[in-house]
Amino acid sequence: xxxxxxxxxxxxxxxxxxxxxxxxxxxxxxxxxxxxxxxxxxxxxxxxxxxxxxxxxxxxxxxxxxxxxxxxxxxxxxxxxxxxxxxxxxxxxxxxxxxxxxxxxxxxxxxxxxxxxxxxxxxxxxxxxxxxxxxxxxxxxxxxxxxxxxxxxxxxxxxxxxxxxxxxxxxxxxxxxxxxxxxxxxxxxxxxxxxxxxxxxxxxxxxxxxxxxxxxxxxxxxxxxxxxxxxxxxxxxxxxxxxxxxxxxxxxxxxxxxxxxxxxxxxxxxxxxxxxxxxxxxxxxxxxxxxxxxxxxxxxxxxxxxxxxxxxxxxxxxxxxxxxxxxxxxxxxxxxxxxxxxxxxxxxxxxxxxxxxxxxxxxxxxxxxxxxxxxxxxxxxxxxxxxxxxxxxxxxxxxxxxxxxxxxxxxxxxxxxxxxxxxxxxxxxxxxxxxxxxxx
Amino acid sequence: xxxxxxxxxxxxxxxxxxxxxxxxxxxxxxxxxxxxxxxxxxxxxxxxxxxxxxxxxxxxxxxxxxxxxxxxxxxxxxxxxxxxxxxxxxxxxxxxxxxxxxxxxxxxxxxxxxxxxxxxxxxxxxxxxxxxxxxxxxxxxxxxxxxxxxxxxxxxxxxxxxxxxxxxxxxxxxxxxxxxxxx
Lengths: 440, 183
Fold this sequence. Notes:
The complex is a heterodimer. Chain A is an all-alpha fold. Chain A is built from 17 helices and four strands. In chain A, the strands form two sheets. A two-stranded antiparallel sheet of chain A has the order 1-2. In chain A, β3 and β4 form a beta hairpin. In chain A, α4 packs across α5. Chain A is globular. By secondary structure, chain B is α+β, with helices and mostly antiparallel strands. Chain B contains three helices and ten strands, in the order ααβββαβββββββ. In chain B, a hairpin with a 2-residue loop joins β2 and β3. The chains are: A mainly alpha, B alpha+beta. At the A-B interface, α7, α8 and α12 of A face loops of B.
């Protein structure tokens, strides 16, 4: 959508290179002259933050891997050695562990932003699906990374998660043995998780490149959901979006640094400072916070599903829970086709807006439920909350578009911007806006 | 056009199919070792031999944990009270009912009743904690709240089946072999 490249190499070396490998041109077209809608708000900065987080995790990870030993009898020690005896080792390890949490903070804001502004709607379905693939890879990477310190939560987390695969009918046992490399979680499991934990971030990088490519083919959405119609609707990525992304990144990093320096273990579990013991289950196994909603969904299915009034069990409670959990992620792939509304932005869908925020609250509540023990009132609440999660995707999204009354959308992005700046007491005519933007 | 009657099949077609088949065999040959290496290695398999346990020291009401193939197993000496409770329990309380006697074992000539069950919850593999109060309740899983009776039969929670019974045999009255077939 950027049309012709505006890259114009001035130096001799630049020209020479441009005729052979136009990498600088690609970068210029993608991150300098690339046009973005002029009305992007702060929620649109999280894509850039995520890119920085990915790089930050790779750099800190490569560095701490130099001190790590992937061996069941040495792994725990090696992490302690890193934390205590390696120069800045404690800082680097905290940066990597807290960074994983903040990576997920950013990805959740990014996903909810996409859901709110309908960023998954045509023609951005592939862009959305690539995003879900990245999210899945992130979860696999984070899970395997959490196993590496080989503490109690590492071990038992691995045990519970790999236990999912035993739910597969008929071949579950063999599949799990091949996954673990033994009859139980052990050294073979640790070494393969280490290998894959190192590999997956680079696969994520690959999919991120596709994700950005797809984004640059369709162009960004914006809070109005109205497509870019004229040159007045856009501003160049650099300096406008670059500066905005940088500001957001600084604020985000400030919060993250507060955690790294003052609350490094706040988002973790004390039990992971106890070396893994295959014979002692921690009193309360909980995954990291970013998996809690799915953990709650896993536990919500504690009943067998069969043919009513017979003893025949079609799906036992274990398989049911695992299917529900994977289903909760899989349903995201189908969101572009589940939403029947052709209005992109939730801003113009007053009814859906209520349900959207209900969904956000419910998702957070599911996370809270995932952190509670499976007993008493938490069990029925988990079931209701899980039901609502699926109800939103499978009933609210498909039906809402058929019945709701939407409010009128602006004719263009520029119209929307002018309308809001008039409201703020700054009347402008369309022709002068670009000028004002530059001075501002 | 071929001189043969079946003019549709050409020599080229045969070559395509043969090349494709050879390619499939080659891919299979490459993938097979890549997948096989994921399985338990030879040392791991060898370490899976049966283990012998001296059970003479276990008093009624006590339970010990024995490791076989890297996984723990409970060996529980049942009290008379527990045996009666397990036998008398109503079928309706169980999700995966089997008679109590199929879940308990006695050494030949021995008096003691034993429950020998896998110590990993059938839900997701956590180790259930022993319930110390005497009665029907045997173990409760700390992870997701599954409950098992003294013979390892599931009564509550997300666990779909009873704690599995490992293959085992009594070599003598106080010598239990886990991993050996009872034959």
